[in-house]
Amino acid sequence: MASLFGLFKKQNSVIGLDIGSSSVKVIQLRKDKGRVILETYGELATGPYMEKAVGQAVALGPDILSQLIKDLFKEANITTKSGAISIPLRSSLLVTIDVPELPDDKLAQMVPLEARKYIPVPISEVMLDWSVIPDMREELLGPEEPNAPHNLPTGGHEMSKMKQVEVLIVAIHKDTIKQYEEIARQTGLEAKFLEIETFSAMRASLYGNRGATVIVDLGAATTKVVILDQGTVRLSHTINKGAQDVTLAIARSLNVSFAKAEEIKRKVGLVERVGDRDMGETLSPIVEYIFNEVNQVMVEYQKKRSRSVEKVYLIGGGALLRGLPEVAKESVYAPVVLGTPFDRVEAPAFLENILQAVGPEFAVSIGLALRGLEEL
């Protein structure tokens, strides 16, 4: 938890609120003459609000979650209520589909119909958005010469001959949006927008990187894998293992409580022994499972696109496990680095080491706040 001097200019400040399953993070940024300045940041664990241990993934109702956020704002000395909230990837759907290249009005009719195949609830119950993904070959090589007229009939046989375009579909259940709007109301937060955490993490992590890149977000309950290319989401995948599974493995191995296991995990990670137990041997199977699956996703993308991933960014609280980057580097074929989202902001020099250490946890909240500043 940190509060920097308390000398803030409210009118230029925004917050990014990242609501996770094991903790809630907030960051407050200010824009000043083109600079992005860190004002304050903080984090509170969700577990204790349900009489669970720190590090445990829990589902808080709107009332309890609102109280946690109020406590967090107070402890972090938040001075503005203007900002944005992230929506977890688990509460949304990201999918890419191929459809015939059509005029915008016809595409707007076709996409919702195609989206029904992927959305497990009635289309009327979700907020649906979509965008055409730029043709990667055209971005890299320039547009091809047209080899067929654009006024083809839209019959079945002719439709199959038409050029295909890729569309990214984003769907969020309306009940989820209502829940977050209620949280904003109860906490007095003036939410300028809601954003799926994936897009916030992209904004904070990539720094304009246009190559094929993977963001691996190691949360408590799950690990989210997103492949981006030319600055656009190309693939989204969820692995049903996360940092909580590491803690549970320690608890079973040492026959200790979850709370004690979480303490041990944060202290020794994968690199030390606890008594006669080598934590690397105990925990490596879980970590290797996660990154072997990450690598498989990367290999499949390479086969499909003929594009090799250039870099893997690790973010999320699970990325802070000591020794984890080294295991990741042995499991995936591309260079692996920890995300450094605080590089996007200015902060006092004495905080440099602290911010570097906690940076991966705050990628989503920083990405939210950066967008908030852009929209001031």
Summarize the structure.
Helices cover 37% and strands 27% of the residues.
Describe the structure.
With 376 residues, the protein is an alpha/beta fold. It has a domain at 91-173: Dna Ligase, domain 1. The protein is built from twelve helices and 16 strands. The strands form four sheets. A six-stranded mixed β-sheet has the order 1-4-3-2-5-9. Helix 7 (243-254) runs antiparallel to helix 9. The chain is globular, with a radius of gyration of 22 Å. The relative contact order is 0.16.
Question: Could you give the topology of this structure?
Answer:
Layout: E1 2-3, E2 13-19, E3 23-32, E4 35-45, H1 62-75, E5 82-87, E6 92-100, H2 104-115, E7 126-133, H3 136-141, H4 156-161, E8 164-173, H5 174-187, E9 190-196, H6 197-205, E10 213-218, E11 223-229, E12 232-239, H7 243-254, H8 258-268, E13 273-274, E14 277-278, H9 279-305, E15 311-315, H10 324-331, E16 336-338, H11 352-358, H12 363-374
Parallel strand pairs: 2-5, 5-9, 10-15, 15-16
Antiparallel strand pairs: 1-4, 2-3, 3-4, 6-8, 7-8, 10-11, 11-12, 13-14
Helix pairs in contact: 1-5, 6-12, 7-8, 7-9, 9-10
